[in-house]
Amino acid sequence: MARHRIWVLALALGCSSASVRPTGVAGGGGLISQAELDAMIEASWQKAGVTPSPPASDGEFLRRATLDLAGRPPTLGETRVFLADQRPDKRTRLVDRLLGSPEFGEAWADRYANLLWHEQVKHSNRDRDPRAWLVKAFNENVGYDKISGVILAGRGDVEEHGGLTFITDRLRAAGPEGLTASVARVFLGLQIQCAQCHDHPYDTRWKQEDFWGLVAYFAGTRVRQDEKMMGERTLFIYDDAGYAMMPSRDYSSGVVVKPRFLGYQPRERPTESLRRAFFRAVVETDLFPKAMVGRTWSQLLGHGLVEPWDDLGGENDPHHPPLLARLSEDFRAGGFDVKRLVRQIVLSTAYARGSAPPPGAPDDPQAAEVAVRAFARAGVRALSPEQLFRSLVVMTGMDVRTRHRAKDEERAQKQLFSGMREFRFAFDDDEMGEATSFDGSVPQALMLLNGELSNEGTRSGADGVLGGILRFRQQPADRLDDMMLATYGRKATEREKGLFLDRLPPGDGPAQRRPYENLFFALTISTEALTNH
Amino acid sequence: MNPSRRSLIKWGTASGLWAGLGGTLGARAAARDLFAGKNPRPARACILLYMAGGPSQLDTFDPKPGRKTGGPFRAIPSSLDGAPISEHLPRLATQLKRTALIRSLTAKEGNHDRARHLMHTGYAPAAGADHPAFGALVAEARDHTTGGMPGYVSIAGPGEPAGFLPANYGPFPVQSPLRPVRHLGRARGVDQAQFEERLALWRQLEDGYAGGNGGAFARGRRAVGEQAAELMRSKGLDAFRVEARNEKARELYGKGDFGAGCLMARQLVEAGVPFVEVTLGGWDTHEANFERVKKLCEAMDQGMAALLEDLDQRGLLASTLVLWMGDFGRTPHINEKAGRDHHPECSSVLLAGGGIKGGQIVGASDQDGGEVRDRPVTVPDLYRTIAHVLDLNPEKTRVTPAGRPLKAVDGGQIIPGLV
C-alpha cells in the first residue's frame, strides 16, 4: 500500500519541464535571520492546516541535539546539569557548545563517510581511515564548496586527501556510470540513473543523453596505483580527455557522447580538467545548495522538505517549498557554511517541537503522521550504526570501563573501534544509505539481546553507569529515575513506577542488584533508548 | 544506491495507513500470488553452492583436453553419458548422473560485483533498482513455515541482500561453519530464567512506548525481537552446529570450511530453512589458475559429492534443489601468469534434485569452450526454471521504492526438458 503511494507520488512529481539554468549564479536572496526562518515555518504549518505540538522539554531537546550534533546521547551527568541550568538561553549555549566540540566533526564524518564511501568505511582499518579527512573538514568548518571541490575535482595522492576516496571507491565499485549516478545524487539531489538505460520513465526532463553527458566528465578519470617507499601502495588520481559511449538498448552498439552538463556546455578553460569544469558547473546550479540544505534538514528533522531529499527533480521544480529555496539562498550567501546551516535548523521552531500531540487534539496515528510530515511535531528517527554503538557505550559507561581495563588510551581506542566495526557490519545493510532501516533484522536483534556490549555494559560493576547509580542513590524510586535519565533522558512515568518499583529492592547486595541489572538491560535495548525523538 | 528503501520502510511502518491495515491480513493476501501454483510437487528448499570469483568451466565441468588452451588437466569419464569432467573431480564424476549440466550459460557482466548481483538476483544491476536476492524471494514466500528458523542462510560468504524487501528476508550470516554463530545463545552469565525476565521487562517497555509516541516503530522492533527470541528457542537451532556432532559425516563431507558448510546446509534444510547458500571463494584465478583450481576442486569435489549422496540417502534430494554456479566463466586464453581471466560469455551451471530431470547435458560450448555453440541459456532462463522448481510466481510484480514495477523474474523461459 505504502509502496503504491510512492509510485503515485513519483508520477505526480514528474510532470514539469526541464530546468538547469544554463549559466550564472542563482537568486540573490541573501542571508536569512532566525526570526524570518521561524516565521516561514509557522506559515507552512498554517498552510498545511496543522496545530504545532508544544515545545520539547529540556530533556528531550538535550537528548535530540546531542545525538544529532555529537553522535551520542548525553551522559547522565550532562543531563542532570542541563536540567538544573536556569539560564534562559541554555539551549543556544548547548547548541554552540556542541557545534564547537570535536565530536561534531566525528558525528558528521560518520554520516558523510557512509554517504560517500560506504564500502571503504565498512572495511577500512583505523590507521588508514579516509574518514579522518572529513572529521577535520567539518570541525574546521572549511565550507561545503571546498569540501565538494576536493571530492569532485581533486587530484593527487589519495591518502593525503581522504576526500579523493569517493572517486576511487565509486569508480572501482561501479565504474564511471555508477560514479556519475552517485555524484548526481549527492551533489545535485538528482535521481537520473534510470536514464542510464533509457530516457527517464516518469521524469521527462532527463534523457538518456543527459546521463551519458555527465558520465563523459568522468570517463577519462584514471586511478594509478604506485608503489611508495617501503612497498606501501598508494593511489593517484589524474585525468585523461573523456567521452562516453552511450549504449543502445540491447548493448549491441553505441553512440559517442561528449561532456555535457544537463543540457548545456559549460565554458571550457583550457588548463582545467574535465572534472574541474564539472565541479564549477555543479556549484553554479541551485541544485547544489538545495541538495545539501535538503539533506541536512532531512537528517535533522527525520524527513525532507522535498521527500526524499535526493529526488529534487529539477532546479526550479514548483514542488520545492519556499523554505528550501530560502535556506539554500542563505547557504550560498553565507559561503556554504555548514555549521551555520546546522545551527539555524537546530535552533528553529520546527526542531524544537515536542513529540506529544497539541493539548486537546486527538492523538491518532494519521494525525500524528500529518503533523510530523509538516514538522509540527517531532517524530521517531532511526539511529545510524555509529549512533547506536555510541549510545550503548554512553548509556552503560562501557567507554570508561574499557579505558579502565585497557590501562592505556591507544588500546582502549582500538577496542572501541573494533566494537564499532561490528556494529557497522551488523546494522548496515545498504549501500550508500545514511540511516539504517529501523525494524532491523534478526541478527541485529540477537546482537542486542545476547551481545557483549549490552550484557556486560548493564552489569552493576563499580565502573559502570548502573554501579554508580546504585552506589549513590539509596531509594529505589531515585534509582529508577536515574536509570530512566541515563537511557531515555527523562524520569519515570507513573505507569513505569507502577510496573517496576515493587520489583526494585533497597540495598545493593548481589541479590538486590539483579533486578536492577535486568531492568537496566531492558531499558538500554528498548526502542525509546535506541531512537532519536 | 537506493536512497529510499529505508525511508520507504520507515514511512511504511510509521504511516497510520500501513499500521491500520492489520499485519496478518495484508500479509496473507499478498502471499497468495507469491506462488505460481503450476508445479504440483514443488521443491521445499534450495541449496546454492556459490563459487565466488568465477570458476573456470574449462578446468571443471567443460574440459577441452588436447586443445591449445585446454590446460594440463586430463578429462575423466563421468556417470553422466558424454560428459567427461576434470580429473580433479573424481567423486563428482560418480554423482554427475543425478545432475543436469548446463554448458552454455551466457551473460554480459564481466565485473565481479555486477556479476554477483546478476547471478544472485537474476537482474543486471541498475542504479536505483535494488533487486532482492532470489534467496530473499524464497524466504518471503516460505515465511511462517520455517519453525522460527531464518528463510535465507548464507554460509561463509555475504550472500546478497534482500534489496527493497524487508531486511529480514536477507541472508542470515554464518561467518564460518566451523565456529559457533555469534549471539545465537544467551550471553555469558545470563540463565534462562533471567533471560525470560529481561524479555518480559523489555516487552513492557516496548508496549508502553508503542502506546505512546513510539507507535509503529516500537511495534515493528518488538516483532523482530520476538522473532529473534523465537529463533533462540527453535528446535532447529542445533542445525547451526557441525563441530563434533557427527564424526562420520564430517569425514564424508571433508573437514574444511566448504565441506562443513555443505553439511550445515543439509542440516539447515532438514531443520526447515528454505534457502541456504554456501560460498566457496578463491576462483578469481588470474594467476596460477591450474594450481589453485586443483586445490579448490578437492574441497568442492568432496563437499558437493557428499551433499548430493547424503541428500539422496535421506530422501531429501527429491525435495531439495541443489545449484552450483559462480560469478562467470573464465577465458580459454591462458595469460602470461598462467591464469585465466573473466569470461561471462560462456560458463557452466549444475542443477540437481527438487524434481530437476538429471542425467542430461544442456547446451554446448565451442571447441575451445569460449563461445556457446548450442542452446544458449541466459540467467533469466535459469531463474525462471528455478522459480518453477520452487513454484514461485515469476510474474509476481513489486513496485520498487523508486517507483518502478519489477517482476520476480526478468523474463526468460523455462529451460526445455529440465523440469
Number of strands of chain B: 16
Oligomer: heterodimer
Give the helix proportion of chain A (percent range). 40-55%
Query: Which secondary-structure class do the elements of chain B indicate?
Result: alpha/beta
What proportion strand of chain A? Answer: 5-15%
- The whole-number mean of residue pLDDT values of chain A reads 84
What's the number of helices of chain A? 25
Number of helices of chain B: 12
- Biggest interface between chains: A-B, 85 and 82 residues
- In terms of DSSP E residues, the strand content of chain B is 5-15%
DSSP strand tally of chain A: 7
The end-to-end distance of chain A, rounded to whole angstroms, is 26 Å
Physical arrangement of strands within the biggest beta sheet of chain B = 6-5-7-1-8-11-4-12
Largest sheet of chain B: 8 strands, mixed
How is the main sheet of chain A built? 3 strands, antiparallel
Order of helices and strands of chain B: HHHEEEHEHHEEHHHHEHEEEEEEEHEE
- The termini of chain B sit apart by 37 Å
Radius of gyration of chain B: 22 Å
Gyration radius of chain A (Cα, Å) is 25 Å
Q: How would you sum up this structure, described in words?
A:
The complex is a heterodimer of chains A (533) and B (419). With 533 residues, chain A is mainly alpha-helical. Among the domains of chain A are: 141-285, no CATH class; 381-532, no CATH class. Chain A has helices at residues 2-13, 34-48, 58-70, 76-84, 90-100, 102-116, 118-123, 131-139, 144-153, 165-188, 208-218, 274-284, 287-301, 322-333, 338-346, 365-373, 385-396, 398-406, 409-427, 442-450, 452-457, 465-472, 476-488, 494-500, 510-524; strands at residues 156-157, 221-227, 233-239, 244-247, 254-257, 381-382, 531-532. In chain A, the strands form 3 sheets. In chain A, strands 1-3-2 form a 3-stranded antiparallel beta sheet, covered by helices on one side. In chain A, strands 4-5 form a two-stranded antiparallel ribbon. A two-stranded antiparallel sheet of chain A has the order 6-7. Chain A is globular, with a radius of gyration of 25 Å. In chain B, the strands form 5 sheets. Chain B has an 8-stranded mixed beta sheet, sandwiched between helices. In chain B, strands 2-3 form a two-stranded antiparallel sheet. In chain B, 56% of the residues are buried. Chain B has a domain at 184-233. Helix content of chain B is 35%, strand content 15%. Chain B is an alpha/beta fold. In chain B, helix 7 runs antiparallel to helix 8 (215-233), helix 9 packs across helix 10 and helix 10 runs parallel beside helix 11. The longest helix of chain B has 25 residues, at 289-313. Chain B is globular. At the A-B interface, helix 1, helix 10, helix 16, helix 20 and helix 21 of A face helix 1, helix 2, helix 7 and helix 8 of B.
